[in-house]
Specification:
The complex is a heterodimer.
Chain A (H helix, E strand, L loop, with lengths): L2 H7 L15 H24 L2 H9 L4 H32 L9 H36 L7 H23 L24 H29 L12 H33 L12 H35 L6 H14 L15 H29 L8 H24 L1 H7 L3 H31 L5 H27 L15 H30 L41 H7 L11 E4 L4 H18 L2 H19 L5 E4 L1 H17 L22
Helix pairs in contact in A: 4-5, 4-6, 4-16, 5-6, 5-7, 5-9, 5-14, 6-7, 6-18, 7-8, 7-18, 8-9, 8-10, 9-11, 9-14, 10-11, 11-12, 12-14, 12-15, 14-15, 15-16, 18-19
Chain B lengths: L2 H36 L10 H4 L2 H27 L4 H31 L8 H34 L3 H34 L1
Classes of the chains: A mainly alpha, B mainly alpha.
Chain lengths: 685, 196
């Protein structure tokens, strides 16, 4: 028996005490902190006796709204780690000027790898998937997503991937190959440890989950819109969700293929991407960016959708240029598959090829520009209310244009040759992802929070957080443009040019401000929960919303709509308000899916399997895989998968809702943030 | 809506979802084909396709798999027009399963022969790409066979209700899809390899 087989057959594989993070005080402290927080959460839940409630109402739920909320919870937790890492890296660069700083190079490299991996796959993706999950069925008049079980499975696979990245903090080390994990550096010859394996399996889980999520939402949107909700009446957020879903279906498989082929290289000594033996690194680069470029539109399109809703609602106006916004989204979806090569202009293709992809890249600026103008014209002559979502939207409108313009500079191959691999690029994509994606997600979180929980978020803390994020972003990333053009390489652990120091200090201050913004965000949540009685909006329409989700109570009942509402207009909720609430009489029983423990079991099995693969623990890898399939097969024998809500129960629930509406005073927009706002909007004359 | 109409709508929607899954899966094969194409000459001094491939064996595999497509089409016809005669349906299913297993056995035998000549996946980039592409298809066929066994059990346990029928329809799509992929593999890998 050879050595490798001995390892696979041993109890703990490659895992032993050297896996503990004792190589650096910082890593040990971080691991201890995470462990402590996790343990105290478990203890708290046990002491309060919440496990039963959590299990019944959340962990086994197949309700798209609950699944959406759990996705966002995951994103907010991972966001914390991502931001802390960002601050630590900025601090390192601010102090490591002609000195080693406090993070050794290897640890610094792990950090930029986990930061990117977490922010993309375990913060932004779950956040936007969560919003789509919660909002889209409500917006298109569906009672759930098309495949509720699959929906829960994708959630728990994503959680398994996130947990794998968290495990890498406590056992072993993460990859030092960056979030894009280019071989041959991530091959066994250069990183024999577990780092790239953590990266491979976390991304594999995440990419499979996202493919299936895309499938689920594409089918839901194509097939489950309520009568009258034709595609060209669908709210912009649902449109961008559809575009993102299509991108997920076709852009995630290249990532799955890339990570699995790299795994074959690392585990079975194949030669896909090795240096030598016929390996071809460019195949990985092409596969990765074949995923990676559509991915940035997966991240930004839902944010565009959120902003479209926010601009219209908080301007008290119909969205300007609806059709052009739809076609711009569709055009971006198509174009996003034609530009991947601009991520590696410098990697040796001919000038002609570079020029073609450079021009294709510039083309994307056109539909995006159309959107910017549409949003500005939505604001034009509106009665604009600067609530928190609108603050994010306004900052987005200004900052995103700067990011877009720097993107156009990068799309010119000669310019790219000068600034590639510098912090100019880092500044550019953070300029797209923070004011674009993150602000969009936070705007959406603030906007739909009252719909999800029945009370509004605290406005003052929200404004303060938004301000910190806006100013913090400017301070943290504008200096990087200058530093990048001056030649500062990205991913640098120590700085040898002292002239970079002042701008790096500014960037460090910006990072501190961003983390203050994050703290405000959590403080806002805490304060809002404490004040929930004063900000309750049970009638579900706190912002005088225009789209269908605002016509349901907050939180919406499990079946969303007692009777599917009539759709006659692009702004169905506004239409319903103007035409008086129609009281349905034709209640019919509704079938809803039963809870199922299978998805969370499948997620746990996937985690065990992936962990076993990382550490070469044969029994865990095989056992986890087996358990996952047993769960799937066992579930296929379950017959009793639905329960029925009777017409009488629906009638009573609806009557209660109507009675509550009659007893509530409708508020004007001036009283939007006062305790008087119970979610019943005064109809504008 | 009547319950039959609802079940029909449910079936249509599920089949639509399965088509989308197949499109995503087809993309995985497309990428593996593309990688294979870029690695045709990455033999690192080792054997190339024309030194290795056996036209007779692969032709036999093609015949077996295409025949299984025929038998599975008979499953679909029985499902549609003669669902009450379960015996026929089960017989055609069993025939498809046997052919699927025969295909896998032939493929494994081929791999064994190749490896005996030292043409392992570890030998060169070309062979890595070859094994990845062909055995991804093989794994799909194996998964199809396992699925088929599961559905045979479900036909036995539950009879031919709408749920089991729907699953058989999805499996039929999957089965034919794998045949189409195989035709591409036969042309791109084996015929091209032997002609080049």
């Amino acid at each position: 028996m050879n050595d490798s087989a001995t390892v696979w057959l041993s109890w703990l594989g490659r895992l032993d005490y050297t896996a503990l993070p004792l190589y650096s005080g910082v890593a040990a402290a971080a691991a201890a902190l995470v462990l402590l927080v996790a343990l105290s959460v478990v203890v708290l839940i046990s002491v309060k006796g919440w496990w039963g409630y959590l299990w019944r109402e959340w962990l086994t739920s197949l309700d798209h709204k609950r699944i959406g909320i759990m996705y966002v919870v995951l994103a907010l937790i991972m966001l914390m780690r991502g931001v802390i890492e960002a601050v630590m890296m900025r601090a390192q660069q601010a102090v490591a000027i002609n000195s080693p700083g406090y993070l050794p190079p290897e640890h610094f490299s792990q950090m930029f790898s986990t930061h990117g991996t977490i922010m993309i796959f375990f913060m932004a993706m779950p956040f936007l998937t969560g919003l789509i999950n919660f909002v889209v069925p409500l917006q298109i008049g569906a009672r759930d997503v098309r495949f509720p079980l699959l929906n829960a499975i994708t959630l728990w696979l994503t959680v398994a991937g996130a947990m794998l990245v968290m495990a890498s903090l406590m056992l072993g080390r993460f990859s030092t190959g960056g979030w894009s994990g280019y071989p041959p550096f991530t091959e066994v010859d250069y990183q024999p440890g577990v780092g790239p394996d953590y990266w491979i399996w976390a991304l594999t889980l995440s990419s499979i989950a996202s493919t299936l999520t895309g499938l689920n939402f594409a089918v839901t949107i194509y097939k489950d819109r309520c009568p009258g909700m034709i595609l060209m009446r669908m709210p912009l957020f649902s449109w961008t969700a559809l575009c993102t879903s299509i991108l997920m279906i076709f852009a995630m498989p290249p990532l799955t293929v890339a990570t699995l082929l790299l795994a074959l290289d690392r585990y079975l000594d194949f030669h896909f991407f090795t240096a030598g033996h016929g390996g071809n690194v460019m195949n990985f680069v092409n596969l990765f960016w074949l995923f990676g470029h559509p991915e940035v539109y997966i991240l930004i399109l839902p944010a565009f959708g959120v902003f479209s809703e926010v601009f219209a609602t908080f301007s008290g106006k119909r969205l300007y240029g609806y059709k052009s916004l739809v076609w711009a989204s569709v055009a971006i979806t198509g174009l996003s598959f034609t530009v991947w090569l601009h991520h590696f202009f410098t990697m040796g293709q001919s000038a002609g090829v570079n020029a073609a992809f450079g021009i294709a890249t510039m083309l994307i600026g056109i539909p995006t520009g159309v959107k910017i103008y549409d949003w500005m014209l939505t604001l034009y002559r509106g009665r604009v209310r600067f609530s928190v979502p609108m603050l994010y939207a306004a900052m987005f409108l200004m900052l995103f244009v700067i990011g877009g313009l720097t993107g156009i500079t990068l799309s010119a191959p000669p310019v790219d040759y000068q600034v590639h691999n510098t912090v100019y690029l880092v500044a550019h994509f953070h300029n797209m992802l923070i004011p674009g994606t993150l602000f969009g997600l936070l705007a959406g979180y603030t906007y739909w929070f009252p719909k999800a929980f029945g009370f509004r978020l605290n406005e003052r803390w929200g404004r303060f957080a938004a301000l910190c994020f806006g100013v913090g972003f400017l301070l943290a990333f504008m200096p990087l443009y200058v530093l990048g053009v001056s030649g500062m390489a990205r991913r640098t652990q120590a700085i040898v040019n002292p002239e970079f120091a002042p701008l790096l200090w500014v960037a460090g201050a910006g990072a501190a401000l961003l983390s203050l913004g994050l703290t405000c965000l959590y403080a806002q949540l805490y304060v809002s929960i404490r004040q929930r009685r004063r900000t309750a909006v049970p009638l579900g329409d706190p912002w005088d919303g225009r789209t269908l989700e605002w016509s349901t109570p907050a939180p919406p009942p499990p079946y969303n709509f007692a009777v599917l509402p009539p759709i006659h207009d692009r702004d169905p909720c506004t239409w319903l308000k103007e035409h008086q609430r129609i009281s349905p009489t034709d209640f019919a029983a509704i079938q809803l899916p039963n809870n199922s423990a299978m998805p969370i079991i499948l997620g746990a099995a996937a985690f065990v399997c992936a962990f076993g693969l990382v550490w070469h623990i044969g029994w865990a890898a095989a056992g986890g895989m087996l358990a996952a399939w047993v769960a799937v097969i066992a579930r296929s024998f379950v017959r009793d998968t639905h329960h029925v809500i009777s017409a009488e129960a629906l009638r009573q629930a609806h009557a209660r809702h109507l009675q509550q509406a009659q007893q509530t005073v409708a508020v004007s927009r001036d009283q939007e943030h006062s305790p008087l706002n119970h979610g019943l909007a005064q109809v504008q004359p | 809506m009547s319950s039959a109409a609802m079940a029909d709508r449910e079936t249509q929607t599920r089949l639509f979802g399965f088509w989308i899954f197949l499109m995503s899966d087809a993309l995985i094969f497309a990428l593996l084909f593309a990688i294979y194409a870029t690695m045709l000459h990455a033999t690192d001094g080792g054997p190339a396709g024309k030194d290795l491939f056996d036209i007779k064996s692969t032709l036999l595999q093609t015949a077996v798999l295409l025949l299984s497509s025929f038998t599975f089409a008979m499953v679909s016809l029985n499902l549609e027009y003669r669902p009450q005669r379960l015996r026929y349906l089960v017989a055609w299913l069993a025939a498809s399963l046997a052919l699927g297993l025969a295909f896998i056995a032939l493929e494994l035998n081929d791999f064994h022969t190749l490896m005996a000549q030292g043409a392992t996946a570890q030998r060169s980039g070309f062979l890595s790409a070859f094994y990845a592409l062909v055995s991804t298809h093989g794994l799909h066929v194996a998964a199809g066979c396992a699925w088929l066994v599961l559905l045979l059990i479900q036909v036995k346990v539950f009879g031919l209700g709408p749920v089991v029928k729907r699953r058989l329809q999805c499996l039929a799509l999957f089965w034919h899809f794998l045949d189409v992929i195989w035709v591409a593999i036969y042309a791109v890998v084996y015929l091209q390899g032997l002609s080049g």
